[in-house]
Design a protein that fits this description.
Layout lengths: L2 H17 L7 E7 L3 H13 L4 E7 L1 H10 L2 H4 L4 H12 L3 E6 L11 H14 L1 H8 L5 E5 L3 H7 L5 H15 L7 H22 L3 E6 L2 E6 L7 E2 L2 E2 L5 E2 L2 E2 L4 E3 L6 E6 L4 E3 L2 E11 L2 E9 L1 H8 L9 E6 L5 H4 L7 H4 L5 E5 L14 H7 L7 E5 L6 E5 L5 E6 L2 E2 L5
Parallel strand pairs: 1-2, 1-3, 3-4, 4-10
Antiparallel strand pairs: 5-6, 5-19, 6-12, 7-11, 8-9, 11-16, 12-14, 13-14, 14-15, 16-17, 17-18, 19-20, 20-21
Helix pairs in contact: 1-2, 8-9
The structure holds zinc ion (2 copies).
The site of one zinc ion has 4 residues, from strand 18.
């Protein structure tokens, strides 16, 4: 067996065992590009080997997506088929796990009218509200893994041939998700342990505020009382430990939706709905974006912020990632949030993970609002970390402590 084939099989096994941690008798929903068919077959084989009762594959194809976005009438884009949402909900209710194989072309919809894109994503987000709740509340186990589609690889490595670009992106992905280690599963367990120590430290501290400062950024983020930091593996409602993102380097919690003030500048391009938004600044007042500029993709950014009443203008996640994380050290801009968010401190516009606050998954809409938990049709991470970012935490008794200095932890966890 070639080295590559061996790595591919290890990757498929890792996605099933460590990613979703599929249990005997459980079903699996698999989202994947048709281009990844060969890899998908390996994953499905691993799923059945792990005891899956059924694997349902939701294929996507970027050429077909493009054609639909280009030609379908607006009324089709504005109406996400109910039967699709119902089918997904039905499987989630039956405790299917969800694995997404992800490798989007960041420029796919560059020449499509932004209003058509936002109508499509809004319709999808509305129709999938209940399904999304299964995922964002960790009711089911779910995971996202990367796959180097040709168009994505060409974007990341524009100076080499298409084949070479894909090979290079595979090499990087394998390294980043620890496929090069003797036992990737053990390596992940060790990594999760490091993230556990960091999140427990922060949970103990219960900072009331985080203060971000660097060139172009001066932002204060209040944290709600009883917020919970997560990072690394999570546990589903049925008690299965799973890894939502592979790779993952972040610890994250929720900001108070009315307690964000100041200005923040992006430090990496954001791939959003087949378009890139780059070099943007957001100004917050009482939690809401009241002003914004972008050097690239300002129209897309505007549509993102205007997705709903004001949920998309408020924050739903604050995540800490050291600048010396292995992904960041690769020096590569991936144009793919799964990778770029794990190379950089980031925030997310939109819905908060209810699991980031005590009793969050059981709160009513009114309670969520009262405790400062943001709700929205979107959840979109954007990167703000750099080698010069400083972050301070303010304790309940008003003391200010260093959390990050020059982009890295100011705390030693030994
Ligand atoms: Zn994140
Ligand atoms: Zn996020």
């Amino acid at each position: 067996m070639s080295n590559f084939q061996e790595s591919l099989e290890k990757y498929a096994k890792l996605a099933i065992e460590t990613g979703v941690n599929l249990q005997t008798g459980q079903g699996l929903i698999l989202n994947a590009p048709v281009e990844a068919a060969e890899f998908v077959r390996l994953v499905v084989k691993e799923a059945y080997a792990a005891g899956a009762k059924n694997v349902h594959v939701e294929w996507n194809d970027e050429d077909l997506t493009y054609l639909k976005m280009k030609h379908a009438p607006m009324e089709v884009l504005e109406n996400f088929p109910k039967w699709r949402a119902q089918g997904l909900e039905e499987m989630a209710k039956d405790d299917y796990a969800l694995l997404t194989i992800y490798g989007e072309n960041p420029d796919l919809l560059k020449d499509i009218d932004a209003a058509r894109i936002s109508a499509t994503s809004k319709a999808g987000a509305e129709a999938l509200t209940e399904y999304r709740n299964f995922i964002m509340n960790d009711k089911i186990s779910w995971s996202i893994v990367g796959y180097p589609t040709r168009s994505w690889a060409e974007k990341v490595f524009p100076d080499v041939s298409s084949d070479e670009a894909q090979r290079k992106l595979w090499d990087n992905i394998f390294k980043i998700v620890r496929i090069d280690k003797e036992s990737p599963v053990d390596a992940w367990n060790k990594h999760n342990e490091t993230l556990r120590i960091a999140r427990e430290y922060l949970n103990e501290k219960q900072y009331t505020k985080l203060i971000y400062q660097t060139e172009g950024t001066d932002l204060t983020i209040e944290l709600p009382k009883n917020h919970i930091w997560h990072g690394g593996s999570a546990v589903s409602e049925t008690g299965t430990e799973f890894n939502p993102n592979m790779p993952t380097e972040e610890v994250f919690t929720m900001p108070a939706k009315y307690g964000v003030n100041g200005i923040v500048s992006s430090t990496k391009p954001l791939s959003y709905g087949g378009n890139l938004i780059d070099k943007f600044k957001l100004t917050f007042k009482d939690g809401k974006v009241v002003d914004f500029t972008a050097e690239q993709g300002e129209e897309s950014l505007k549509h993102l912020l205007d997705t709903d009443e004001d949920g998309a203008r408020r924050l739903g996640e604050v995540a800490l990632v050291p600048h010396q994380s292995p992904i960041s050290q690769s020096g590569i801009i991936f144009y793919n949030t799964l990778f770029d968010e794990n190379a950089s401190c980031h925030l997310a516009l939109g819905k908060a993970y209810p699991t980031n606050i005590e009793n969050g998954p059981n709160m009513s809409e009114q309670e969520m609002d009262k405790f400062g938990v943001n709700d929205s049709l979107v959840h979109e991470d954007f990167m703000i970390g750099s080698a010069t970012l400083n972050i301070d935490g303010v304790t309940e008794d008003g003391k200010t402590e260093a959390i990050f200095r020059d982009g890295n932890w100011a705390i030693s966890f030994d």
